Amino acid sequence: MNNSMTSAKRWLWGAVIAILCLWVLVPIYLIIVNTLSSPAEVAGYPKRFWPSFDMESVQFFMGFQGVLDALWNSILVALVTMILSIGLGAPAGYALARFDFPGKNLFRIMVLMTRAFPLPLLALPLAVLFIRTGLDDTIIGLALVHTVLALPFAILITSSLFMGIPFELEEAAWTLGCTRFQAFRKAVLPLVFPGIAASAVFAFVISWNEVFAAAVLTIENRTLTAFLMQSLDESPLHLKFAGGTVLVLPALIFLFAVRKYLFAMWGIANR
Amino acid sequence: MTRYRSVLKTAAAAFILSTAAGSLPAAAEGLLFWSTQARPVEESQAMREQVLSDFGQEVDYQPQDPGPYITRLQAELEAGEGTIDVLGGLHGDFASVGDGLADLSGVDLGGAKISDTFMEVAKLGGDTQKYIPWMQATYVMAANKKALEYLPEGADVNALTYDQLIAWAAAMGEATGSPKFGIPAGPKGLKHRFIQGYLYPSFTDSMVTKFRSAEAEAMWNTFKDLWAHTTPASTNYAFMQEPLLSEEVWVAFDHTARLAEAFNQRPDDFIAFPAPAGPTGRGFMPVVAGVAVPTTAPDMASSKELVSYMMKPETQIATLKATNFFPVIDVELPDDLPAAVQISGAAIAAQASSADANPGLLPIGLGELGGKFSQVYTDTFERIVLAGQDVRAVLDEQAEALKAIMDEAGAPCWAPDEPSEGACPVE
Amino acid sequence: MQARALPYLLLLPATVFLALFFLYPFFQVALESVTNEEGFTFEHFGTMAGHWKFNSALWNTFLLAMVAVPLQVGLSLFMASIVTKMNTGRDVILYIWTIPLGISDLAAGIIWLAILEQNGFFNSLFVGLGLMEQPATILGYQNKWLLFMAVVLAEVWRATAIVLVILVAGMGLIPKEYNEAAEVFGASPWKRFFKVTLPLLRPSLQTALILRTILAFEVFAVVAALAGTNLPVLMGETYQWQFALQDRKVAAAYAMVILGISIAFTVFFLWALRVPKEAQT
Questions:
Q1: What digits encode the pLDDT tens for the residues C212-252?
Q2: CB pairs below 8 Å between A and B: how many?
Q3: Distance CA C40, CA C58 (A)
């Protein structure tokens, strides 16, 4: 922290950071309290603010038939979505950032339309298409639909990153004898890599949390969200909260695991 | 900067792995049972473990929200091939896909006796047996025993009237400082059934024909009186068992399956009793769920076998324990039933056999307009009771919407309305 | 010649993909919204606009986007500039602040319901501390503003993280020298923020605003969890018509309206926050 800060300022600074952390963490803490409480406590009033470590609700989900398979399917679908959306999105993002060409805005708008149109309405024609082509009930099929959702993020985020990198850097590499591709790989990619990783993480999370298409398009290869969430809304309160936690935790662990890629961009900022 | 390279390699490996996994032929995992019933996770688990495990083949029971349920089903019918073997749903879930349901009249019911009315309703107005009635339930009242001391003088909880209910709700509210009566008026709550099957028959002896009558106007004003003593949090409730257990609410109306948790968790604290009566009797509505087979089922013979398995007496009793829905066939009930079944079972019997019973059936012959039909009642409720709009004006407007639906469907009247020639009129 | 074809080659995979998996089903649905048995018609739009909930759904959706999105962007800018000034513990703080990224809107709805419902943590705390006499009904139908605030609160909690990540990534690419130079010339921190950081952040800001606004017009699960049908929004009505009322044509009409509004805003942001060619380095 800045050395010129007075101690009062420093104190205020710390307090602001702490409050913002609490704002994020307290709601999550509370749902975990509910998850680890007995059904009677969850329905009761007033609530207690610390858990009684009643594991009944958690055990119910652990004993649920097929949870592990569904978890594995969720991870696979999310990984494929991540790869597809970066593979398709990063080149498009680069093109949007570096070139001016007719049809540029048209392309941007088409990309955004995919996010602006409600997916549940698209699910019916897609499901018919998938059943006819044999993509139905496969990991790849669902990942394709999730990629439609994640692609706008991938394209727009990578394009705003490429825009932030001076074009001179690439030009300098060309004068040093690099081909266009080499220049990109050696000069640009290392710089934007963390940002690309961040949009890959988005893709993963978007896929992880998607329910509707997953419920319609998978039968035997069910994802965890489709498996749990579809009926959670109508389940007794204590199971609702436990199910919510079961869904949230893997995503948090994933974010934690990839956090160094997500925020490695700080190394660059201080170049 | 070699970090990203190792990441790319890992990613590529994952991609290849998942492609391999994805292209594996889906293993045949038995029959797919696609259902809108027994959705709460505990009930679906019980369906799998206690009801379907004894069927010779493996059954994959998949409960679904109406959205994915109907989307998947429509897609399979449109594509002309599918994976769904058996469907489970309410009458309304089948009505919109009637053309895609196979004729089940040849299915062996093992001599089970199912009510003729139910069987007729299940033909969806055609000649073939579109679905087989599977289980039934209804709506009753539930109360915390603490509430009983506030019952108005001379009122019998088993033969209550709506006026007494209002007085009771008022007395509870006064004594405790906040309203203690509740109905499931949330987005997933079944409030429209309270209006269609309970209020309308009790006050107008009709569900459709007298929608905008003077009696109906009086009924809505009574409802407004009741609402004044109803907890406003009602508009968030889907299942009344939760507010009953938290004691946010002491007296409630709901579907028996949606009260079950309260009776099971604290059987000594709660009672169930029949719905109140109005000037034209004690209106109530039975609910029927059925099983059907889509024409696209991959293995028609096994599907029909599963349907006939669902109708066996043992299966029907196991289903009752798992879902709190009662058998549709005549069957001797064992003594070891869960508390909820015993408590609500008595109230259901009292309701159906009361001297002034006036049953209203679920809408018949509306096809895919069933949702819009219910929406008319929900909209009327939201406008009159919640938004406080003028009763007469709203009734006149909504009656036009109702009339348009009845004309489009061409559906004749059903009980308690008198049978009609052609579309059921809205007077 | 090759250089001129290059951008199109780079766009080709994404375009083919979207044509197949988005445009094809999209046109099928779009067609439903403007046709009936006889041919072209606007009757489904008429049915939609004539329904008594349409106006409030439109208005609520607009209002939610107008209130929630600026709050999210403002809060993220604040958080991002705090983070840029930190030297130690930055990773931990950033991780914590981006946790809601991993939480679906359904789960967020469940979490805030647990807090705000009548028997929830909010009432338990305030009654417990003696600040309130009786548990308050926050999520009742009578007070639409309270309901609205509850939804805004949950939306800001859930969706600020995504804006934060986009802005942090963008800020990371602003060369430190620019700020240092401004500091040498004696610019105050405020001035540096408005004159240096904000203009250079324009591409990221544009991306964040477009994505958040589009997602805000699709708000549904959080509203459904907290407000039920008491706060109708466009997406909720779309679901209602598609699945409960089983009228795919009117649902498609709603979807077209959502799409139209979103595109209008996208075009606006593309224009308002455009990066002039000469400013691109």
A1: 999 899 888 888 888 877 889 999 999 888 888 888 899 99
A2: 146
A3: 25
Choose from A115, A129, A228 for mutation: most chain C CBs within 10 A: A115
Burial of A195 (0-12, 13-18, 19+ CB in 10 A): buried
Do C173 and A159 lie within an 8 Å CB cutoff?
Answer: no
Scanning chain C, the segments in alpha helix (DSSP H) are: 2-18, 24-33, 43-50, 54-85, 90-97, 105-116, 121-128, 144-172, 176-184, 189-192, 198-200, 202-217, 221-227, 234-239, 248-272
Q: Does C93 touch chain A (CB under 8 A)?
A: yes
Task: List the single residue in C with minimal CA-CA distance to B242.
Answer: C119
The whole-angstrom separation of Cα B403 and Cα A200 is: 53
Q: Do A112 and C97 touch (CB under 8 A)?
A: no
d(CA B150, CA B181): 12
Minimal Cα–Cα distance from A101 to chain B, Å?
30
Is the ipTM value over 0.90, yes or no? no
Question: What is residue C88's predicted lDDT score, i.e. its pLDDT?
Answer: 78
* Contact with chain A for residue C85, Cβ under 8 A: yes
- B263 with B331: CB under 8 angstroms? no
C134 to A45, A52, C124, C131: CA distances (angstroms): 12, 25, 10, 9
C-alpha neighbours within 13 Å on the C-beta side of residue B121: 24
Q: Give the tokens for residue A252.
A: 């948090």
Contact C8 A101 (CB under 8 A): yes
Asked if C281 lies within 8 A of A248 by C-beta distance, the reply is no
Each residue of B89-144: pLDDT tens digit?
A: 988 888 888 889 999 998 888 877 888 888 888 888 788 999 999 999 999 999 99
Q: Residues B84, B73: contact at Cβ < 8 Å?
A: yes
Contacts of B40 in chain A (CB under 8 A): 231, 234-236, 239
CA nearest to B418, candidates B152, B229, B206, B272: B206
Interface with chain C: mutation pick from B71, B78, B235, B244, highest number of C CBs within 10 Å: B235
Instruction: Write out chain C residues lying below 8 Å of A50, CB-based.
Output: none
Amino acid symbol at C275:
V
Low-confidence residues of chain C: pLDDT under 50 = 1, 278-281
Q: How many CB atoms lie within 10 A of CB A133?
A: 10
Cα(first)–Cα(last) distance of chain B, in Å? 80
Per-residue pLDDT at A230: 61
With tokens 């513990």, the residue in question is C89
CA distances from C159 to B161, C97, C105, C164 (A): 50, 11, 9, 9
Higher pLDDT, B16 or C196: C196
- Cβ(C113)–Cβ(A30) below 8 Å: no
Find the helix packing angle between A237-257 and A224-232, rounded to 10°.
150
Q: Hey, CA dihedral for B328, B331, B336, B342, is it positive or negative?
A: positive
Cα B167 → chain centroid: 29
